[in-house]
Amino acid sequence: LDDVAGAAGKAGTKAAGVVIDDTAVTPRYVVGLAPERELPIIGKIAAGSLKNKLLFLLPAALLLVWLEDRFNLTLIVPLLMIGGAYLAFEGTEKIAEVLLHEHQHEEQLVDSMADPKDLEALQVKGAIRTDLILSAEITAIALAALDHLSLVTTAIALIAVALAITAGVYGVVALIVKLDDIGLHLAERSSATARTVGEALVRIVPTMLSALSTIGTAAMLWVGGGILLHGLEELHILDVVPHTLHHWSEAAGAGAGPLVAWFVYALGSAVAGLIVGGTIVLVIRRFVKHPEELIVD
């Protein structure tokens, strides 16, 4: 139990950066839906996320560990890079839809759904699909921090990480999307301070949720690009690109602090994601008449 607790804590800390990205991405899937359905939808997404981690990613991770150890293979990194390329594609496709005004086609498809349950199912499906990629990265990062453990201990530690991270991410997401309701409740209190805070929340939350939707798209680019850059570095393929970005990030951070260093690396990762995602979008648009339907369907 001590081994599991220590390993899970170490693995969870390593994956903290992706947890932040996951938290930024998820709220965009409940923006615009009925307030009374927000928490149930988040609950469905959280259940789907846990299913991703425990039923699909955990067995796959353990199998990959066994194969890598048994046959001296490198499998996890290439698979992660495929997931990173998909995230980069989805983020770039969203930007292309806005720039080319193709989001109207998606809005028409959504508006044509007479049953609100169909819309909920669409949003939940999209969120769980995106979560699968982010959860895969969390699992891989956690796995990398669990060296020299038995297969059983590794499995238990990954389960602990999955439960803790899922609860943390979707607990925070639930709090974010319900801040406006909290504001309304505070605005009805007798205390002047509570009313002031509540009225401020009511005004700020819609703008914040809209901004989070944009941040979620940006997160797809910097997470996807970051996965790709890390993969190039691990596989020693074009590793001059991630090495150069690391150098720029460290140089910026030396003069301005770690936050600036993180921003420079995140920006570089987003550019890498935009390049790879843009290439995929061009290829998809060459062979698919309405590529935006890939996201809706």
Please give a quick description of this structure.
With 297 residues, the chain is an all-alpha fold.
Question: How would you characterize the overall build of this protein?
Answer:
This protein has 297 residues and is an all-alpha fold. It has 12 helices and no strands. The protein has helices spanning 2-14, 16-25, 38-71, 76-99, 103-111, 116-144, 151-177, 179-187, 192-235, 240-256, 258-287, 292-296. Helix 8 runs antiparallel to helix 9 (192-235) and helix 9 runs antiparallel to helix 10. The longest helix has 44 residues, at 192-235. It is globular.
- Report the portion of residues in β strands: under 5%
Distance between the termini: 44 Å
Structural class: mainly alpha
Order of helical and strand elements: HHHHHHHHHHHH
The helicity comes to: over 70%
- Mean of residue pLDDT values: 81
Radius of gyration: 21 Å
Oligomeric form of this entry?
Answer: single chain
Overall, the morphology is globular
Low-confidence stretches: 291-297
| Total helical segments | 12
Number of strands: 0
For this entry, give a set of tags:
single chain; 297 residues; mainly alpha; 12 helices; 85% helix; disordered C terminus
Helices and strands in order, then pairings?
Layout: H1 2-14, H2 16-25, H3 38-71, H4 76-99, H5 103-111, H6 116-144, H7 151-177, H8 179-187, H9 192-235, H10 240-256, H11 258-287, H12 292-296
Helix pairs in contact: 1-6, 1-7, 2-6, 2-7, 2-9, 3-6, 3-7, 4-6, 4-9, 4-11, 8-9, 9-10, 9-11, 10-11
